[in-house]
């Protein structure tokens, strides 16, 4: 793979940093990949080769590229981290994903940007990211360099990430509006970002289990003129780790000496995060966990992620207090359309059982235990 032709351009009130990717060992067409934002945030965006190297690495090794030759200067700290990331991928894939050689035009002799003392984070509108924002607010004084000041909402993940499903900009705009209600209450900036890096390899298993954390980190590097700490909320708690596109062993390996990538709050279980969100009213009325992207709501209330979140809120006696879902209770019948024993979801349900038992919701306890024992008739 060759990565070159870095550009910073403006079109239709958006500012874009881009690069050309040419495959060498995989029969795929040349592609321009980009990260872009709106005009008010244009000054924070830079042509940073780190963003494209990090974003391209996982597809390159997955598809058998022998090297990445990249124009521009690359931090030796990032090179070191990516060497470890590739070794981790080899282990997780049982040898199927073999490390490649990274050939930069130049190795950076010293960090290129002075310390900004500013922290940002990925904000999806889901429970993990809101809990990380809220926990940060409770831990750090506003003037501290570790206090999050910027929240990046990214188009090209669940919204616009799968080409066949369309770009759904209206869904993104609706999510952004809900996000801004939360960030305004938190006193932080909401920054919309658009990227097509996921389109390099539209393989769902690769995306979920290996790739998405690298694209989050790539966005951070594109905005390293603005932030020097970029936070990614943990997907799993420390007791229930599994190979995942975002992981406490993996995310920090995408750091350079210009930008630290931090995997946050892996000590918290999901039910602890639900309590954090439920105790913060602006977020509790404006969170988005659903991937269905329905027309008229942030959350469909029917998919596995919605029902799982709703069940957790029942467990802490909070579902009836939020308008994020149309329903104010969960019934066993709502579990019928999907499985709950795939993609390492079991821990999310098992941790709810004691609290559900305490609430006397043995109907939900029995349903969850039954679903975990055997496959259902359909998968989510």
Structure description:
The chain has eleven helices and ten strands. It has helices at 49-62, 76-92, 127-139, 169-186, 204-222, 270-278, 281-284, 304-315, 346-350, 353-358, 362-373; strands at 2-11, 14-22, 31-38, 67-74, 101-107, 119-122, 148-155, 189-195, 229-233, 260-264. The protein has a ten-stranded mixed β-sheet with strand order 5-4-1-2-3-8-7-6-9-10, sandwiched between helices. Strand 1 (2-11) and strand 2 form a beta hairpin. Helix 1 runs antiparallel to helix 5 (204-222). The longest helix is centred in the middle third of the chain and has 19 residues, at 204-222. Residues 376-380 have low confidence and may be disordered.
Jot down its keywords.
Rossmann fold, disordered C terminus, ten-stranded mixed β-sheet, alpha/beta
Secondary-structure element string = EEEHEHEEHEHEHEEHHHHHH
Tally the helices.
11
Number of strands: 10
The rough form would be described as globular
Could you tell me the strand content as a percent range? 15-25%
Look at the structure and give the CATH class of the largest domain: Alpha Beta
Question: C-alpha Rg, in Å?
Answer: 21 Å
Low-confidence blocks of residues: 376-380
* Class based on secondary structure composition and strand pairing: alpha/beta
Provide the number of structural domains. Answer: 3
Query: Describe the biggest sheet?
Result: 10 strands, mixed
Distance between the termini: 35 Å
CATH topology of the largest domain: Rossmann fold
Give, in spatial order, the strands making up the sheet with the most strands: 5-4-1-2-3-8-7-6-9-10
**Helix proportion range:** 25-40%
**CATH architectural type of the largest domain:** 3-Layer(aba) Sandwich
Q: What number is the mean pLDDT?
A: 95
């Amino acid at each position: 793979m060759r990565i070159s032709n870095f550009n910073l351009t403006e079109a239709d009130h958006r500012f874009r940093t881009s690069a050309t990717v040419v495959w060498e060992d995989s029969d795929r067409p040349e592609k321009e990949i980009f990260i872009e934002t709106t005009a008010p945030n244009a000054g924070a965006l830079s042509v940073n080769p780190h963003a494209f190297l990090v974003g391209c690495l996982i597809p390159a090794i997955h598809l058998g590229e022998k090297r990445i030759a990249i124009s521009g200067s690359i931090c030796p700290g990032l090179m070191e981290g990516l060497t470890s990331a590739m070794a981790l991928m080899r282990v997780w894939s049982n040898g199927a994903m073999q490390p490649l050689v990274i050939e930069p035009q130049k190795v950076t002799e010293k960090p290129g940007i002075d310390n900004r003392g500013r922290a940002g984070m990925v904000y999806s509108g889901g429970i993990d990211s809101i809990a990380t924002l809220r926990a940060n607010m409770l831990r750090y004084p506003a003037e501290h360099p570790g206090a999050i000041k910027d929240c990046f909402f990214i188009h090209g993940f669940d919204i616009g990430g799968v080409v066949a499903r369309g770009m759904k900009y209206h869904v993104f705009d609706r999510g952004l509006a809900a996000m801004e209600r939360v960030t305004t209450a938190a006193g932080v900036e909401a920054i919309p970002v658009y990227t097509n890096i996921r389109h390099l390899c539209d393989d769902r298993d690769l995306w979920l289990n290996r790739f998405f954390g690298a694209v989050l980190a790539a966005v951070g590097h594109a905005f390293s003129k603005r932030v020097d700490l970029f936070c990614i909320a943990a997907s799993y708690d420390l007791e229930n780790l599994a190979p995942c596109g975002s992981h406490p062993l993996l995310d920090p390996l995408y750091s350079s000496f210009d930008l630290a990538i931090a995997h946050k709050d892996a000590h918290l279980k999901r039910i602890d995060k639900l309590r954090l969100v439920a105790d913060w009213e602006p977020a509790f009325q404006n969170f988005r966990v659903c991937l269905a992207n329905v027309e008229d709501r942030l959350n469909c209330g029917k998919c596995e992620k919605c029902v799982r979140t709703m069940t957790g809120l029942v467990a802490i006696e909070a579902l009836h207090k939020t308008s994020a879902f149309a329903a104010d209770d969960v019934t066993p019948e709502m579990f019928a359309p999907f499985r709950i024993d795939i993609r390492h979801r079991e821990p999310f349900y098992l941790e709810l059982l004691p609290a559900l038992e305490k609430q006397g919701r043995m109907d939900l306890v029995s349903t969850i235990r039954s679903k975990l024992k055997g496959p259902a008739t359909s998968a989510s």
